[in-house]
Amino acid sequence: MINNSQHSLIIRITTLAINQDSELQWFLFDHSQQLIQKGCDALASIKEALPAAIRAEVAIHVIVPNDAVLLARVNIPSRNQRHIKQALPFAIEEFIAQDLEKVHMAMPQQLDPSHEQIDVAIIEHSLLISWLDLLHHHQLSPQTMVIDTLCVPIEPQQHSVLIDGEQVLLRLGLYHGVSCERASFNAIYSQLIAENFTEDNAPVLQCVYSQAESEAEASLNYQGAVKESFYKEAASEILAANLLKQGAEQINLLQGGYKQGKQESGGFELWRPTFIAAAASLLLFVISHLASAWYFSWQAEQLRQESISYYKQLFPNERRVVSPKRQLQNHLRLISSGEGGAFLSTLAAISAEFKPYTQTGQIAVKQLAYTQDNHLLRFELSSQTIEQLDSLKQQLSAIGIKAVIGSARAQENTVISNMTVEAQP
After folding, report:
1. What would the pLDDT profile of 165-199 be if each residue is shown by its tens digit?
2. CA gap 410, 100 in Å, rounded
3. Which end of the chain is more exposed for a tag (fewer CB within 10 A), N or C?
4. What phi, psi does 40 have (nearest 5°)?
5. Can you tell me the distance from the alpha carbon of 271 to that of 110, in angstroms, rounded to the nearest whole number?
6. Whole-model pTM above 0.70?
7. Is 362 exposed, middle or buried (0-12, 13-18, 19+ CB in 10 A)?
8. How far is CA 283 from CA 9, 273, 276, 295, 384, in A?
9. What element of type H or E holds 268?
10. What dihedral angle (degrees, nearest 10) is formed by the CA atoms of 14, 16, 20, 25?
């Protein structure tokens, strides 16, 4: 999950709602995990604050607040990834109040084969998309997005709490953590211990204090066994450094349709996509020449039947369909002279921006609807990553077309999203 051959930029998000002016703490580490630069800047300015020589190759990791995520544990007997993905939505239903389609689920990279329990992080699609949309817009495409409580340093068989001003981040295991206000910590944690442990087997609580905490102010008034650790670094820097130290022992929220592309290294890995593409091209060339006559004849008939079917859906009262293309052109001429002209002109304007994405298979248009009352075009799109949708949105914005990415959901390795475009008069 962490590439030690690159510089690493770690950005911490502390609130759910952010914008381009939100000031975020960031830390730049070299390939030896040594901190070489840090700052607190507006999101829109972070990329420019980095040394110019490494901006294009730095690996970006984002720490998000525990308040945005529900960390749960469910029982699934199978260790087959396919079976787990099929069963997981049903297993988490009892933990969430929203519809399953509105939430994204992420699992640890490595599953423990010694038991049937699966740790899972649950987050709303809308929140994840809003963060990624902002980050991508400012050339900050993260490889990983992790949870702050799971970056708190912890020892085996212990609980660990990081004092972060008036907030505390409590880590209860490798993939389990909660956050709360400092004033209520003692009552919450004492109740948790009383419900899950006896006096003899209660874990030691490791209290991690940042540079902002003096020894006189550090006490949490917890009466159980406590081990204290005082750091010279600030809380965010402790989380950032420990994220790099943990490596793969994390839950990366960017899974499935949110998974970001990786830069391959090494001779074979560098050329591997080229070899695969060449082999696939050769195979397609041979097959197409062996069966071209039959295939194109069959395809032409299929397309003709499909065009007639689509035409009948658009114009159910049309009695006779002789030439769908010519008959549709007649309808379009009539529409273009009335209020439908805005729809056609906008569709023509954005078709050139859609073309590079649809031709390469990066984005597919599943549905298109036009509302004449408010002049809105609504697209249902499928893409490989959220980054491609954001890129299309920026392309439309560059030609003066306002586009809004709405709700989205992940299906296997694709993202299904709604995009709304205002028709231009």
Report:
1. 888 999 999 899 999 998 888 888 988 898 888 87
2. 11
3. C
4. -140, 105
5. 28
6. no
7. middle
8. 42, 15, 11, 16, 24
9. helix 267-314
10. 10
